[in-house]
Design brief:
The complex is a heterodimer of chains A (300) and B (757). With 300 residues, chain A is an alpha+beta fold. Chain A has three domains: 50 residues, 2-Layer Sandwich (Uridine Diphospho-n-acetylenolpyruvylglucosamine Reductase, domain 2), CATH 3.30.43; 112 residues, Uridine Diphospho-n-acetylenolpyruvylglucosamine Reductase, domain 3; 111 residues, 2-Layer Sandwich (Enolase-like, domain 1), CATH 3.30.390. Chain A has ten helices and 14 strands. Chain A is globular. In chain B, a hairpin with a 2-residue loop joins strand 9 and strand 10. Chain B has 757 residues and is an alpha+beta fold. In chain B, helix 9 packs parallel to helix 10. In chain B, the strands form seven sheets. Chain B has a seven-stranded mixed β-sheet, with helices on both faces. The chains are: A alpha+beta (300), B alpha+beta (757). The structure holds flavin-adenine dinucleotide. Flavin-adenine dinucleotide binds next to strand 2, helix 5 and strand 10 of chain A.
């Protein structure tokens, strides 16, 4: 568990950072960005990656901000997990669910150092922030010496620890669209110990009318090799009455039609589907409860 | 007066200040000039013919001093066999793999470099050609599969204990229940993995190692390298845990010791955590079958236990484990017929070795799961059923049908205390309330009454202790045990301070150094206080007598006639009567060295206790939450309750690890699925520790001068059966076969679904 040899640079501007990435991309083993280091260091020590160059991002100014604007929030590359423990950071349903999700990301020392954007770049198949980004339909901004592009979160990860990001591209920010006022959010995770990654998780954003579901987003982690939307379940639920039966029906569709889990040690497929079904149902109930909270907030 | 309250006093550990300040000195902290680091290239294939190991590229890596495979080191010894002769015969454990590889993680080559980074770069560059053979991963497969060591059966050892139960006992019984249990393979998981440093000093070899049995290791290394025993000095500095897994002589030790001599430079090998998952030993690994016959009153008529144990790739210290399980098949009960059989087989997993409890957790699990199954079938309270069958306090010493002599025990008292501390009636009421409420999560209560064995067996039932008085008024206590974190500097020195009536600060504790301590067996099997403490206690008493005799003699030489009986020892001073006296330091200064050695011998002791667990089950997900644990342990007389408490808590948490989280999961290709390390191998941490109540009863050991039995392993003996029994109770589960450890959500969900349908 010792890293193989690599060179290290610590640029102090974003321009220098992308130039360093461009230079490093041609090296044998490529180049890696060091953000919070909570995953990169492990990968290095296990020799799962062998970059010739590591570009330390931490001295680049201007990457540590969370900007809330009208319909969304922009999260810079050096915003730590811990920032999201603050319930006042972001308004509305997302603001209320962020601290619940943040609590599930590792443990306090990890959250102190690890970054939101680093989590997306690392692309663990059940990472909470990737689930959030996919569920809300976030945009990921990538910058290289050649220019800037944005990618939809749903297209960003292509599998475990794989993304469309090129070696020379820096993930500079993630834009989360915020659901309209009145929406509720619910997040439920299944994990075996407090320090474990999620085995599975469900995130729901719900808008309800007088008697029926007006709109919903259902995101699943642990249902595939990356977080996914449960689009069939969303279709079943949209317009359906707000009842325990329709929640259960949507949950079943999410687990049995949208999800396509693979067997893992201690995680056979039938159990994973069962867990997903229960998590979606519970997340729907939590989201419904949260819409009540949303009503309260708006009245106040 | 000494500054602690004697045997009842709860001294906190005097080593902690050093350790908490980061001033501990572990093997990896020993900075020596010209020190080299070794790293091993290891097999990623479970089983195969080793065609070729190419170390040429490794030798080219910058900073690498050398790289060797077995072919390059033809004089490398094999690992010295352990235990009964014959078991290892034809199944040599080479220090570096030669013609075959037999488990993932087996060392293929060693690389020595200026530091561990370069050494790993070198190990990375080693290439091996292995023609893969099918892996053999379970004991059952080993029974039916081809011979792993051609010409030698896969069953490396077998034994039976007790007389076979007559057929008519089973046939005429009111009820016979049968159980099948699996003890999964687990990683012993000490915070510090193995660490070994060999320093050549002329013709001598000085070894620093994190180890439980330094004297045995010294003899093994000397013999393997063809040296005289006193040419090797083995010393254990601060150590970060062992749990049974650091008492063997490992292949890596022999390689590093041989290279240090060959290179004439200090060479160390500091195993890392990821490496240890496959390179170090596993614990547990048994398939068990049980059968219990009862009469209509619920009296046990006969119990039978069959153990099929996995030794892994090479039979070594793992052989003693299933034997221990079989010997302890009687449990706490007056069952007239008990018969046990054990067979152990070689496979292609990492070798197994004792792991905290070493056979007794497995035995207690088999017995106590079966007892609660019988209670469920009979429809009687499991507490009642146990009470009806316990050995009575008058029964001791008791010769069990399986060949153990239990020294003393008050099993019913421990269970009574457990029931009280739990407030069982209140939990039963809550359980009934939930059973009537379809929305409530089911709650279950499970028990385990265990008997275990401490001290050792056969030639290990001895320990060395020595106490010396120095001219400066201080004392040196030397002991043959070897602390790997248990706090011997406090607890064992305290024993001496108590006898001498002096402050603990005046005792310097020296152990785990074959250059300083004449002999020793070591620390395992909960034996350090019982055996080492007793040796020191007696040696300290003998030192007092020696000092009194010498003081009397000296006074007599000075003309006064002082009978020995007229000399009293108080707090390090010899009082000669009539206002005359001499400090023991001055006596030493005047008369020369003063020291008493004691070789203590005693039969094994049998600590016992009762555990209870209350669990809640989320049947939809399969999650188990432990709401409460109660542990009542009887360690005999406790010398330092702060330390035994720490041992109990730590052991309980390891028990939770086995029952709920831990397993080395082998994939069909023979590789453990642990690529993500501690994300895959889950160990409980503080967040997973449930509320617990610890209590004790005290039944002194009649054969021990301190009245002490062993402490340290009880928690991981009592917890697993109590928790699984509680889950079975919550689910009202009659089929024990579905509920196997670890109780992952998938396992519990399946069991719950089966119970509901
Ligand atoms: C014990 C433990 C528990 C954990 N539990 C969880 C958990 O429950 N849930 C969870 O989601 N995560 C968990 N993590 C991972 C943690 O969230 C990491 O912090 C996160 O995945 C990576 O963020 P980082 O800033 O530390 O990135 P780094 O470790 O610095 O980098 C990770 C990877 O992303 C790349 N990268 C990072 N930032 C950028 C960027 N701006 N542009 C391009 N590439 C970039 C790096 O090159 C590297 O490949 C855990 C980690 C540990 C050690």
């Amino acid at each position: 568990m010792k890293a193989p040899p690599f060179d290290l640079v610590a640029p102090t501007s974003i321009e220098d950072a992308v130039l360093a990435l461009a230079a490093g991309a041609d090296r044998p083993g490529g180049v890696a960005v060091l953000a919070g280091g909570q995953s990169l260091l492990l990968d290095l020590h296990h020799r799962r990656v062998r970059p010739g160059l590591v570009v330390d991002l931490r001295r680049v100014p201007g990457l540590g901000a969370v900007d809330v604007h009208g319909s969304g929030v922009r999260i810079g590359a050096l915003v730590r997990h811990r920032a999201f423990e603050d319930p006042a950071l972001v308004p509305g349903a997302v603001g209320r669910v962020l601290p619940v999700m943040a609590e599930h990301v590792g443990h306090p020392p990890i959250r102190e150092l690890g970054t939101f954007c680093g989590s997306l770049a690392w692309a663990h198949p059940t990472a909470e922030w990737a689930l959030l980004a996919v569920t809300l339909g976030a945009q990921v901004t990538l910058r290289s010496a050649a220019g800037t592009r944005t990618v939809a979160a749903a297209e960003f990860s292509t599998g475990p620890h794989a993304t469309v990001r090129g070696d020379a591209e820096l993930l500079t920010a993630v834009d989360l669209p915020l659901p309209p006022p009145g929406a509720g959010a619910g997040f439920v995770e299944h994990r075996r110990t407090e320090a474990s990654f999620a085995a599975a998780a469900a995130l729901v954003v719900l808008e309800v009318g007088d008697v029926s579901v007006r709109a919903c987003r259902i995101g699943l982690a642990g249902a595939a090799d990356r977080p996914v939307r449960a689009t069939r379940a969303e279709a079943v639920l949209t317009g359906a009455p707000v009842t325990a039966e329709s929640f259960a029906a949507a949950a079943r569709v999410a687990a049995h039609e949208d999800a396509d889990p693979r067997a893992e040690p201690h995680g056979p497929v039938d159990h994973r589907r069962q867990v997903l079904s229960v998590l979606v149902r519970r997340a729907l109930v939590a989201a419904l409860d949260d819409t009540a909270r949303a009503g309260g907030e708006e009245a106040a | 007066m000494p500054d602690h309250a004697g045997p009842a006093g709860g001294l906190t550990r005097r080593e902690d200040l050093r350790l908490l300040r980061g001033e501990g000195r572990f093997v990896a902290d020993l900075a020596l000039p010209r020190l080299l680091d070794a790293a091993f290239a290891r097999s990623r294939v479970a089983h195969g013919v080793l065609v070729d190991v190419d170390v040429s590229a490794a030798r080219q890596v910058p900073g690498v001093l050398g790289a060797w495979s077995a072919r390059d080191l033809p004089d490398l010894p094999v690992v010295p066999p352990f235990g009964q002769p014959g078991v290892a015969e034809g199944r040599d454990w080479p220090a570096l793999a030669d013609d075959r590889v037999r488990h993932v993680g087996q060392p293929l080559a060693v690389v020595v470099a200026a530091d561990r980074y370069r050494a790993e770069d070198g190990a990375d560059a080693v290439r091996a050609r292995i023609d893969a053979l099918p892996p053999v991963l379970t004991p059952q497969d080993a029974l039916s599969g081809p011979e792993l060591f051609p010409g030698h059966d896969n069953v490396a050892d077998e034994a039976e204990f007790g007389d076979p139960v007559p057929e008519e006992v089973w046939a005429s019984a009111h009820l016979v229940v049968e159980g099948r249990y699996r003890q999964q393979l687990v990683s012993p998981f000490s915070m510090e993995a193995r660490a070994f440093l060999a320093v050549p000093e002329g013709e001598q070899l000085h070894v620093w190692v994190s180890h439980q049995a330094p004297h045995r290791l010294r003899d093994n290394i000397a013999q393997a390298l063809g040296l005289a025993p006193d040419a090797v000095r083995v010393q254990v500095p601060d150590a970060g845990g062992a749990f049974g897994s650091k008492s063997a002589t490992f292949p890596e030790y022999l390689v590093v010791a041989a290279l240090a001599r060959r290179l004439g430079r200090p060479v160390r090998w500091i195993e890392d955590r990821a490496e240890a998952f496959t390179a170090h030993t596993h614990g547990r690994g048994q398939d068990q079958r049980t059968r219990l016959a009862l009469d209509a009153d619920g009296r046990f008529l006969a119990f039978e236990l069959d153990v099929l144990a996995n030794l892994g790739a090479y039979p070594h210290t793992g052989v003693v484990v299933p034997q221990q399980t079989a010997l302890m098949a009687t449990g706490a009960y007056a069952t007239p017929h008990v018969h046990s059989r054990m067979r152990c087989v070689v496979t292609t997993t990492t070798p197994t070795a004792p792991y905290r409890g070493a056979g007794r957790p497995e035995a207690a699990y088999a017995v106590e799961r079966t007892v609660e199954l019988a209670a469920r079938r009979l429809g009687v309270d499991p507490v009642q059923l146990r009470r009806r069958n316990f050995l009575a306090p008058e029964a001791f010493p008791y010769d069990t049908p399986t060949g153990r002599r239990y020294d003393s025990g008050e099993y019913a008292r421990a269970l009574e205390r457990c029931v009280e501390a739990l407030a069982l009636d209140a939990w039963r009421a809550e359980q009934r309330r939930r059973r009537d409420d379809p929305a409530a999560r089911p709650l279950g209560i499970g028990f385990c009454t265990y008997v275990e064995r401490s001290g050792g067996d056969g030639p290990m039932l001895r320990e060395f202790g020595s106490v010396e008085a120095l001219a400066d008024g201080t004392f040196v206590a030397r002991c043959g045990t070897s602390s790997t974190g248990q706090g011997h500097e406090t607890a064992l020195a305290q024993v001496v301070a108590d006898v001498l009536g002096v402050d603990l600060e005046r005792i310097r504790y020296v152990a785990a150094d074959t250059g300083e301590v004449a002999s020793g067996v070591g620390s395992f099997g909960s034996r350090s206080m019982q055996m080492g403490g007793a040796a020191l206690h007696l040696a300290a008493g003998e030192l007092v007598d020696l000092a009194r005799r010498r003081a009397a003699q000296r006074a007599s030489e000075g003309g006064a006639l002082v009978p020995v009986a007229g000399v009293t020892w108080t707090t390090g001073r010899l009082d000669l009567g009539g206002g005359q006296g001499i400090d023991v330091g001055d006596l030493v200064a005047a008369t020369g060295p003063l020291r008493a050695d004691h070789e203590f011998r005693q039969d094994a002791a049998f600590p016992f206790g009762s555990y209870a667990a209350v669990v809640e089950v989320d049947v939809e997900l399969g999650d188990v939450e432990v709401l409460r644990l109660v542990a009542v342990d009887d360690y005999g007389v406790v010398v330092n309750p702060v330390l035994t408490r720490g041992q109990t808590v730590g052991s309980i948490v390891q028990g939770l690890g086995q029952v709920l989280y831990e397993e080395v999961p082998y994939a069909a290709d023979g590789r453990p699925s642990l690529d993500a390390g501690l994300f895959d191998y889950l160990v409980p941490t503080l967040s997973e520790v449930p509320p617990m109540t610890l209590e004790e009863t005290v039944t002194p050991d009649p054969g021990n001068p301190l009245g002490a039995k062993g402490a340290g392993e009880a928690g991981c003996i009592g917890v697993p059966p109590a928790v699984v029994n509680a889950v079975a109770d919550a689910l009202e589960l009659d089929d024990p076969g579905t509920l196997q450890m670890p109780l992952t959500p998938a396992v519990v969900w399946r069991a719950a679904a089966g119970a509901a349908s």
